[in-house]
Design goal:
- The protein folds into two domains: about 70 residues, Orthogonal Bundle (Multidrug-efflux Transporter Regulator, Chain: A, Domain 2), CATH 1.10.1660; about 60 residues.
- The chain is about 50% helix and about 15% strand.
- It is built from nine helices and six strands; from the N terminus they run H-E-H-H-E-E-H-H-E-H-H-E-E-H-H.
- Strands 1-3-2 form a three-stranded antiparallel β-sheet.
- Helix 6 packs across helix 7.
- The protein is elongated.
Length: about 150
């Protein structure tokens, strides 16, 4: 058992308490829900060191509920810093499915992508500007000089 975890913490995360508010420790999924972000975003924050220090209980990684509630400012700052987004995030931003996003992409109706290794990403600001212009085709978007 981790030195940071007390016996009460262990009992709370083992399911002996049925109310969510009574839980002291939360897992990644619950932490993401508390902050109103996706699990993928939470994991990204965790890997970049923008979450509170976790408590390890065996193979489980848990966080104190109160510390999660206190890191809302860090999450807001992190989302402001993001420059490039994935297909999943682009589709979520537009309120469409990934399949629809890729159909638009393959038919030349999205802004030009950026390739970093095997990853395909899009500029967040360019996508916002593209939507403000009425989602023109890639050709028209680049012809207007709006696309970088």
């Amino acid at each position: 058992m981790n030195a940071n975890a007390t016996q009460d913490d262990v009992m709370m995360c083992s399911g002996t308490d049925t109310s969510d508010e009574g839980k002291i420790l939360v897992d990644a999924r619950e932490a993401a829900e508390l902050l109103g972000v996706s699990l993928t975003t939470w994991r990204s924050l965790y890997r970049s060191g923008k979450t509170p220090k976790p408590i390890r209980l065996g193979r489980r990684i848990l966080w104190k509920r109160e510390e999660i509630k206190g890191c809302v400012d860090k999450v807001a700052k992190c989302s402001e810093e993001k420059i490039l987004i994935s297909d999943r995030e682009a589709a979520e931003l537009l309120g469409i499915s990934r399949t629809t996003w890729w159909s638009l992409f393959n038919s030349g109706r999205t802004p030009k992508e950026i390739r970093l290794g095997r990853r395909i990403l899009w500029r967040l600001e360019e996508l916002k500007d593209w939507v403000d212009e009425g989602c023109p085709s890639r050709y028209n978007w680049e012809w207007k000089g709006a696309g970088v």
